[in-house]
Amino acid sequence: xxxxxxxxxxxxxxxxxxxxxxxxxxIYVRVVPKDLLPALTFLAKDDAFQMDYLKYMTVIDWEDHFxxxxxxxxxxxxxxxxxxxxxxxxxxxxxxxxxxxxxANWHEREMYDLFGVTFSNHPxxxxxxxxxxxxxxxxxxxxxxxxHFNGVSTTRNNVVKLPSAREFES
Amino acid sequence: MSVQYLxxxxxxxxxxxxxxxxxxxxxxxxxxxxxxxxxxxxxMVTPIAAISVYIERRLSAKMQSRIGCNxxxxxxxxxxxxxGIKMISKEDFMPQGADAFLFKFAPYLVMVGAFVxxxxxxxxxxxxLADINIGVVYLLALSSIVVIGIMxxxxxxxxxxxxxxxxxxxxxxxxxxxxxxxxxLIPVIxxxxxxxxxxxxxxxxxxHNWLVFYALPFTVPAFVIYFISALAEVNRTPFDLPEAESExxxxxxxxxxxxxxxxxxxxxxxxxFLISCIAVTAFLGGYQKSAANFPFxxxxxxxxxxxxxxxxxxxxxxxFSLFQGKNILDMLMFHHPKPMRRWLRIVCLILAVxxxxxxxxxxxxxxxxxxxxxxxxxxxxxxxxxxxxxSLPRYRxxxxxxxxxxxxxxxxxxxxxxxxxxxxxI
Amino acid sequence: xxxxxQYINDRQMELNMGPQHPSTHGVLRFIVTTDGELxxxxxxxVGYLHRSIEKIGEKVSxxxxxxxxxxxxxxxxxxxxxxxxxxxxxxxxxxVPKRGHYxxxxxxxxxRLASHLIAIGTYxxxxxxxxxxxxxxxxxxxxxxxxxxxxxxxxxxxxxxxxGVSFDIPQQFVSKTKVFLQEFAIFxxxxxxxxxxxxxxxxxxxxxxxxxxxxxxxxGLVGPNLRATGLHYDLRxxxxxxxxxxxxxxxxxxxxxxxxxxxxxxxxxxxxxxxKQSAKMIRQIIDNLPxxxxxxxxxxxxxxxxxxSYASVESSRGELGFFVVANGTAxxxxxxxxxxxFAAISMLEKIAQxxxxxxxxxxxxxxxxxAPEIDR
Lengths: 170, 426, 376
Known about the structure:
The complex is a heterotrimer. Chain A has helices at residues 6-14, 36-45, 104-115; strands at residues 19-23, 26-31, 53-61, 65-73, 80-88, 93-95, 118-120, 148-149, 152-153. By secondary structure, chain A is an alpha/beta fold. Chain A has one domain: Beta Polymerase, domain 2 (2-Layer Sandwich), CATH 3.30.460.80.
């Protein structure tokens, strides 16, 4: 399915502000934040798309903004696309889509945990992978680890000093 | 030599006349009785439990295509000694918040249920510790003491998982006592006596007299039901949910360590041997002489001779290798070469056949032959129980209860009524 | 006097199936609220194995990230290698020669066998039958020996490179694999006879935690778990990669033979059948191995700009995918790993309602969870 097929034309008519890109044979649908939930609902429910499978959700941290990516797939129509939306870095709040795909529940929790993106209307927005009392969101580019966690130091003197510095140690 | 020598008053007077000047007579009686019991258990019952542990490890390894414990001693027979020393030397601790007295007391209750039951089982015509007239009732009563012990163990551990395990076990044991009792009633009805010795005497004279074949359509299911219920009584797979390893780490004995756990562990093997002994006594002819004893006796003698020869063959090798400078440890861990195994096996087999024919001919005169017959038959059932443990998955608690109440109890009722009719009419 | 009344819930018991647990599925913790033996609520607590592999992907180069992908799913590590390599090759347009594809398929299927052996082995062990576990591990040892000859490692292989594979098959590898396949067929037959028709096993496992296809798709369930619900979908057939379209194999789908469609028994049977199909595939691969180079031309340092790609393979637990975003430097900008166990464990709260504690262990084992995939 390429970008120029009639199905995507119909999508662009429905959601005006979307733009379509294609990287490495994967279609990216970039929408504005206010169109996110309508676009996702449309892709999930419309007969031509029927994207019932949310593969994953991820957040990409560009230095000045976040980009939220939803990768969707349809078993029936074999369509595949990534819906991406740019959101602000300070106080990012997005509407949750767990009522469309229950799989989003845990993915949104993971995004909250690792990036700090808050999802409104989420039934249980708590940290998933990190301990509940962790401070900070690690996968952000500007994350600095706290010095102590529950009394244990998080740094350790480098006991082994290799004779030659290699590139993957930087 | 009969045990009654030690209990005979005249003999005792002769031997212990010296002490009677110092210690009063009743105390001597008590001491000799205690000594009798101790000797009986240490010579007869406990080695079997100890060997069972070793055999379970080797047998399970054989079934899983691996070797099993073979490091300590030739083919690993000293493993139990090492395990015993380890258990005794472990730190004795109790979980925080555990009820101290109950925690310490519970293993003894479980052990008592197993050990004391051996008192009324006839190993031969004379080798019977206590000729109790209500032997069957005595056995059923003691299994209830085990329930109390298990519940105390689970409750006093201050651990929710142990509590779950012990409650499951209590429900299971109490439920399965019903089909157990009913299927044990069948030999009682046929022989008309609760005395185990008399039940044994009834089955003398050959395999056709065995109680399991008495009223064929009813006693064979009765034996099977007895066996299944007894397996459930001793918490053995497929009914080992109370000590299910993958859910509750060890069930009701999770918090026990060292010799306290060792008592539970040995108690389980004693229980296994006990239920096999009861099965053999009540259904399979006990120590009586019959042609069917041949295979059991051959197997146990073969086994015994094989192990003995195997150990003995290490001694000359020991001598040779000392001269040739080989490491003893290397030599002990070496798995013997094939040609030696073959002739060893043939020799042992021939010897076993010869000895079992001799046994059959001389049965009536010797206690030892009767004991060997009895133990070999009972041990065969023990091996069968071990086989079941390593092949079958376990039942869930509600399926277990379902099996007992909805399937075993009706069938045992039918068997009971059938045997009643059979005894009256035939 | 003002007394505060506090409602103490004495009907429910809160149990903790802690991170250390005899069920060998990795370090997982479940907080279970029960009413006696019946479970009312299960809350999985994951994160004990979180190593932030995704953050490491931003610090090392594209080539240097390959060993880390092994650790994502160390039970079947080659599939993770394969997925990452495919993703980078898609992004940088790198061609893989045919022999490289065949060797990748060989490694994948051997790892699928190894992983399913663990799943099939630990599942009866959690239910009570200990013997199949030992036999399954014996077969897995043989596979480990084969893979050790192939690439030098037994668990974390680091065998695939961007553009192909790193080593060619050694001498006598083909004959050893054929010997292994013969013994493996005997083992599978024994396992079938011992477990698949065992009354106790079926009683424990059938009609338990049935998942409908609609629920499975909605929660993102993939792999054998999804196929057990009846949906015929396999990435190797429906979106074929790496010369899978040249192999002849079937995709086993659950049929609800002993109970409801999509229950634990179906998940078990689907895995057993998949092992049979994998053995068939391995035989075809080693019989038809083409000649040629094993690795294509890939630049020493990959620098891509303004592009991203996603590629997935059918791992033993379903779709294992890598989403890589490039930003013009020698390292990736973001690596996101999508795994099948993550979706499976998120379904657990829903399907483990109203079952016994003993059943909970069976359900967790039937979903074939491995903790490193969930936590990354």
